Amino acid sequence: MKKLWVLSFCTIFFVACQKESFDVSPTSDIDNLPTIQTINNKEGYLMKVNADLTVIVVEGVMDPLSCAALPSHRFAVANLPAELKGKHETKIVFSGEVKQNIQTGDLVLYAGIPLKLTKIKLK
Whole-structure pTM over 0.85, yes or no? Predict the structure, then answer.
């Protein structure tokens, strides 16, 4: 009986610790913008700006060569999965294409640098 409890606990712990991935739409409103950088497996967190907009924030780091802090970045995501919209302070790992900042239609680019996600998962 004791072994069964230990096995059950380990199984529940393993399932709870798995990182949840989300499907990302392969198309977005900003596909026509030029890609200026590709990001792979970057850590950040989601921040709810208002009822309609959630951005990704990447914290700045200390640059050891200049002894100055590099600024944090906010990304306005064109294809954020619906399950993650409205989340606040949720840690994530993401990959995507940073797009040139040109005003486009409905996407609120003043809230951050335009980003087309290619992959996102909870940390």
Answer: no
